[in-house]
Amino acid sequence: MCDAMIEVRDLRKSFGSNEILKGINMTVKKGEKVVIIGPSGSGKSTPLRCINFLEIPTSGTVKIDGHYFAKPNEKLNEKHVAALRTEIGMVFQRFNLFPTMTALENVMAAQMKIRKKSKEAARETAEKYLKKVGLAERMNYYPSQLSGGQQQRVAIARALAMEPKTMLFDEATSALDPELVGEVLNVIRELAEEGMTMVLVTHEMKFAKEVGDRIIFMDGGIIVEEGHPKEFFHNPKEERTKTFIKKVD
Ligand code: ADP
Ligand code: MG
To answer: Which ranges form a coiled coil (predicted)?
Structure first.
């Protein structure tokens, strides 16, 4: 047993000659909720993408539950990556549901393809998680027949159906009409209360204060400041943090 769920050590990432992550260190304990905030382009998404193998770090390491997940420049075969990725659920701004599949089929697909579950088992799990996100009545609808908030809840159910150890949310509500944000935040809040380990990038400051055990503020590819939400928002230490908080308040 290991106390840390996610351990990121000196993570650096360059695109060409442009170093956009300049040494990120982050430990997320089991059950902890960490919220990353910061201006657009500050490098909030890239650490999540490295954690989930969507990017390979230029240097540094990522460990999940004590196992190395990402090592610099290591060529990982696709099967290996797919297996490791199931340990981590990720929800993006764009839901990326398959348009020709119903909600139920969307949530079943990866379970069968990657987890090699039977159709019956995948259906049972899909139903369980669609109910959990409040879509019991919408399982047989196609994405085009669902609102943005409902589609994002399908995407959350799809991630949960893989029974991941940790969830990453990258601006999960940023593409939604304002009146649909609440229903998605409620689902995330409920998961948080159940003890899911999670890292969230969000612009919803009120939500960050409520749900976060810790706030990380990034700017220019580094962690400028981090702390408990109360301390962080009421008593920020760095000038850059103060300026940012004033702007988003
Ligand atoms: P944030 O999520 O805070 O908006 P990102 O982590 O997405 O920031 O990106 C940080 C910087 O890295 C941005 O300037 C972005 O343009 C750049 N960047 C991100 N992904 C790529 C890529 N695949 N190729 C080149 N530049 C990228
Ligand atoms: Mg981003």
So the answer is: none
What is the rounded distance in angstroms from the CA atom of residue 151 to the CA atom of residue 91?
Answer: 11
CA of 37 to the centre of ligand 2 (A): 10
Whether 172 and 91 have beta carbons less than 8 Å apart is answered as yes
* Among 193, 110, 93, residue whose Cα is nearest residue 151: 93
ipTM over 0.90: yes
| Residue 20 CB–ligand 1 contact under 6 Å | yes
Any idea which residue has 């770090």 for tokens? 57
What is the phi/psi pair of residue 192, to 5°?
A: -60, -45
Digit-coded pLDDT (tens) for 73-125: 566 667 777 777 888 999 999 999 999 999 999 999 999 998 899 999 999 99
DSSP H/E element including 34: strand 33-37
* pTM for the predicted model, two decimal places: 0.94
